[in-house]
Request: fold
Amino acid sequence: MTSTRRHQKGYIFKKGSSWYLRYYDSVVGPDGRTARKAKCKKLADCSGQYRSKTSVRSLADEFLLPFNDGTHVAMSSMTVDAFVEGHYLPYAKDQKRPSTYNGYRKMWEAYLKNPMKMPLRDFKTADCEALLRQIVRKRNLSIRTIGHTKHLLSGIFRYAIRTGFLNGANPVRDAVLPKAKAPSETHAYSLDEVLKMIELLPEPARTIVAVAGFTGLRRGELRGLEVGDYTAGVLMVQRSMWRQNVDEPKGKRGRGAVPVIPWLEKILDLYIQNTSPRKYLFEGALGGPVNLERIIGSVIVPALAGQPVRWRGWHAFRRGLATNLHQLGVADIVIQAILRHSNVAVTRESYIMRDGVDPQSLAAMQALERRLSNFSANEVVKSGESEPETIPAPTD
Reply:
């Protein structure tokens, strides 16, 4: 196929005390149509090495190179905000989990939408770093939140490259996160905290908390449980619910069976006997899945007021189970299987909270102590108190 790309050299002219370049750019308008428009760019001031038209020709050729070699495509003239609103967010709504799309849309509108009026092709790594610094200064975000913001930006430009709106490298990839405040401390419920909540809460909050504390199910997975998912000794995780949206459980290993210990079985069996749920294990007044946010505000927080245990969110049960199992000596790879993480590193780094000395580290140091039992610490100290050996002075 013969290329129809037009090679242009542009027109260099002097205006006032500066050199300018007139050139043509193919741009996409609001109606989606491509038009070829004349544009103008300042090349340099008429001074020093740039006193003649010939002297600025190299600057013009360098600027025009992306237009002539095909790096700049017409669609890359679309502004970032137009691309996100018209292409990326609809893609995310169609392809991502509803809760993920909702988070992306809120982050875009809160932090990114207004500053992103430049063409896709003009957004550089330096612009990304400057934008992230500006957001941190204006919003006082934590390093975790600004990291999520960069992740969203990177995904936007990856999609632009994949769909042909932009050629070249992702400008966000090499951007460095600015200094920001530390993220808020996460919490893992201790076994005592879980048991205290079970003691204080009425139904159905009591059983919901018991299932969360002793299975580690995510909030959406708790809402998505159906009566048929529970059999003696097992809960089958088969769906997740966010608002009214039913979706697959999160992650490649999201679906699966989670063991139910006999202690929890008794609580579940009594709950089912007394409430007779029809479809969902935890149902609201109208028969749909329970509204967990309403349960928090109307039941859990009031019941825990003035008590030694505080409400720290549903995810603290998941971290708590991981931490409690770890402290009992359960291998991390087994905890990973129970929580259905795709990677054991996620289990270790984000879910097992290590307050104090890790039990395995303590056991290792105790083994070292036993190995040293044949050596008297007093004798070692005494030998160290002897006169140091005299080192002779160097000779010529």
About this structure: Residues 386-396 have pLDDT under 50 and may be disordered. The longest helix spans residues 143-162. The CA atoms of residues 185 and 312 lie 11 Å apart. The radius of gyration is 32 Å.
